[in-house]
């Protein structure tokens, strides 16, 4: 199978492309950058997309492709930009690629979305399911949901899957997860000992396994699927797990959650702190049931691989 992976030079794109190559698929990687992160080898084809808003440009790249995994996006980890900029990248590019794909005869289209297309947090003891009512708030979530609706509108033209993921971690992770790892490794005292929440996470190895399963499935209903690790740790549990893998002692102390959020709000970091204090859980029962998919990696093993099995993790 020849698979087009867009955004191949990004964190998730690199992991998915390498996994597909290891599984024996041919990969055509598309990015807006001239330099490919992969060695030049027979199975890997690199395509530079200078104008990702052009259907004509995508038609050339999607020729002789069996499936597409679309990852190009502007996410919440990328600072700056208003709603129109998010919409331009997350919606307009997706629409151009989708139309070019079905005209090129692509058999399956996988759109990588995120749980923020549904909402920013879940109530204690609850989880977002695929059919949950969507109330996205942040620009990334709003435009990801708009892109989902665009894809769903035309899903009858080819087999279409929308894969929603929570926070993804793994080798090469950046953003808030990397910062948390660095603070744990340095032994920074963290006022999160009293947080009682639950957060779904997704290790790159579990994500790539799910994508591979979806691409190879013969009788796939399609539509929206959630994917996540089995564990749903609280923030203190995650910090303790990271510390255990690194061989350091977690330095957690109690501070009222409400006070934490209030102080963070004054300093302009309210949203970031709420990602540590609030719950965000997804149900991935549909993927497990329909494809008999079981995430192959535990949280512990995922963290070991992410940290390089010790304290010298790669930045």
From TrEMBL:
A single Pfam family it belongs to is: Epimerase
Q: Which InterPro entries does the record associate with it?
A: Epimerase_deHydtase, NAD(P)-bd_dom_sf
Q: Where is the signal peptide?
A: none
Output the SUPFAM superfamilies linked to this UniProt entry. NAD(P)-binding Rossmann-fold domains (SSF51735)
Annotated NAD-dependent epimerase/dehydratase domain ranges read 3-228
| Family membership noted in the UniProt record | Belongs to the NAD(P)-dependent epimerase/dehydratase family.
The cross-references to PANTHER family, in alphabetical order and at most eight, read: DTDP-D-GLUCOSE 4,6-DEHYDRATASE-RELATED
* The name this protein goes by in its record: NAD-dependent epimerase/dehydratase family protein
């Amino acid at each position: 199978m020849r698979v087009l992976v867009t955004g191949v030079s990004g964190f998730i794109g690199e992991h998915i492309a390498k996994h597909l190559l290891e599984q024996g698929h041919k990969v055509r990687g598309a990015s807006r950058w001239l330099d490919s992160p992969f060695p030049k080898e027979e199975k890997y084809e690199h395509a530079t997309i200078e104008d990702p808003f052009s259907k004509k440009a995508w038609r050339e790249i999607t020729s002789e492709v069996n499936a597409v995994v679309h990852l190009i996006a502007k996410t919440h980890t990328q600072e700056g930009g208003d709603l129109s900029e998010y919409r331009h990248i997350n919606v307009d590019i997706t629409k151009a690629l989708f139309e070019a794909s079905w005209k090129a005869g692509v058999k399956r289209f996988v759109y990588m979305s995120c749980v923020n297309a549904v909402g920013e947090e879940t109530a204690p003891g609850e989880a977002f399911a695929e059919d949950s009512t969507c109330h996205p708030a942040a620009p990334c979530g709003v435009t990801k949901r708009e892109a989902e609706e665009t894809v769903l509108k035309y899903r009858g033209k080819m087999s279409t899957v929308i894969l929603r993921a929570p926070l993804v971690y793994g080798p090469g992770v950046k953003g808030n997860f990397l910062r948390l790892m660095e603070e744990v490794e340095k032994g920074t005292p963290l006022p999160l000992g009293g947080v009682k929440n639950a957060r779904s996470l997704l290790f790159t190895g579990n994500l790539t396994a799910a994508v591979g399963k979806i691409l190879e499935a013969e009788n796939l209903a399609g539509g929206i699927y959630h994917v996540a690790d089995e564990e749903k740790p609280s923030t203190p549990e995650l910090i303790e797990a990271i510390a255990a893998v690194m061989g350091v002692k977690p330095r957690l102390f109690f501070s009222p959650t409400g006070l934490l959020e209030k102080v963070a709000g004054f300093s302009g970091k309210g949203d970031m702190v709420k990602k540590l204090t609030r719950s965000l859980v997804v149900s991935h029962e549909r993927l497990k049931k329909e494809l008999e998919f079981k995430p192959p990696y535990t949280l512990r093993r995922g963290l070991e691989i992410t940290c390089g099995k010790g304290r010298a993790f790669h930045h």
